[in-house]
Amino acid sequence: MLPEKKISTAVIKRLPRYYRYLGDLLENDVVRISSKELSERMKVTASQIRQDLNNFGGFGQQGYGYNVEHLYKEIGKILGLENKYNVIIIGAGNLGQALANYTDFEKRGFIVKGLFDVNPRLVGVEIRGLEIKDIDEIENFVIENNIHIAALTLPKQKAPKVASDLVKAGIKGIWNFAPIDLNLPKDVVVENVHLLDSLMTLSYTISRKEKKKKQQK
Ligand code: NAI
C-alpha cells in the first residue's frame, strides 16, 4: 500500500524518467539491475535513487538490486498508469495536430478521443482518424465520453475561458500548453508544459559554460 505522506514534486518529476529507463531495460530483457548500474546509466547517484524509491516503501533488496519488471510495474502504479485516460485537445493548430499525431501517448494509456477548434476551415478535417469538432460541441462531448484530461493548445487569451468551461463540464486534469497561468478550483489538476522554459534553461547553462571558458582563458 502507498503511504499517505506527501511526496515532493521533485521526486514525482523524476519518476517518469525511472519508468522510461526501466521500460527500456525490460525491452532488452534485463531481469535485474543493481542500484549502482541503474545510477550509472541514469547519471543519478545510487543514493538519490534509493531515497526516491524509499518514499514509496523501497523496492530493492540488499545484494540483489532491483527486479526490473517489478519496479517498472510499481512505478507505473505510483504514476497511475494502470488507469486509462481519455484526452481531448483544444486548438487543432500546429501544436494540437502534432500532439494528435503522436502515437506513444496511447501506448501509455492516454487515449486521444477528440480534437476541437473554432476555425470552420478546420472543423471536419481528419487527423489520424479523428475528425476535428466544433468547440460548441465540447460540453456534451466531455460528459458523454467520460473525458479526464484536456490539452490546451489554443491562443493564451482564449485559454482561461475555455479552461473554466471545461471544468464546469467536469474535466479534472488540464495539460496546459498556452503560456498563461490558469486560476482554477483546487480539485482541478493543472500541468503546465512550456518548451520555452526548457530552452531558456538550456540557454542559461550554455551561457554559463561560455562565461567559465572565457574566465579560464
Ligand atoms: P496555432 O495558431 O497553429 O493553433 C491554435 C489553434 O487554436 C487555431 O487552430 C485556432 O483556430 C484555435 N483556437 C483559437 N481559439 C480557440 C477556441 N476558443 N477554442 C478552440 N480552438 C481555438 O498555434 P500553435 O502554434 O499550435 O500554438 C497553440 C498554443 O500553444 C499557443 O498558445 C502557443 O503559444 C502555445 N505553444 C506552447 C508551446 C509550449 O511549449 N507550451 C509550444 C508551442 C506553442
From TrEMBL:
Chain sites annotated for binding NAD(+): 91-96
Family matches, as InterPro entries: CoA-bd, NAD(P)-bd_dom_sf, Rex_actinobacterial-type, Rex_DNA-bd_C_dom, Tscrpt_rep_Rex, WH-like_DNA-bd_sf, WH_DNA-bd_sf
Record-linked SUPFAM superfamilies: NAD(P)-binding Rossmann-fold domains, Winged helix' DNA-binding domain
One MF annotation (Gene Ontology) recorded for this entry: DNA binding
Oxidoreductase as UniProt keyword: no
Cell compartments where the protein resides: Cytoplasm
Pfam families associated with the record: CoA_binding, Put_DNA-bind_N
One Gene Ontology cellular component annotation held by this UniProt entry: cytoplasm
Any GO BP: negative regulation of DNA-templated transcription
Domain CoA-binding: start-end pairs: 81-181
Record keywords: Cytoplasm, DNA-binding, NAD, Repressor, Transcription, Transcription regulation
DNA-binding region(s) from the entry: 17-56
Oligomer and partners: Homodimer.
Similarity comment: Belongs to the transcriptional regulatory Rex family.
NCBIfam families the UniProt entry points to: PRK05472.1-3, PRK05472.1-4, PRK05472.2-2, PRK05472.2-3, PRK05472.2-4, PRK05472.2-5
Cited function: Modulates transcription in response to changes in cellular NADH/NAD(+) redox state.
Name of this protein: Redox-sensing transcriptional repressor Rex
Organism: Natranaerovirga pectinivora
Upper taxonomic lineage: Bacteria, Bacillati, Bacillota, Clostridia, Lachnospirales
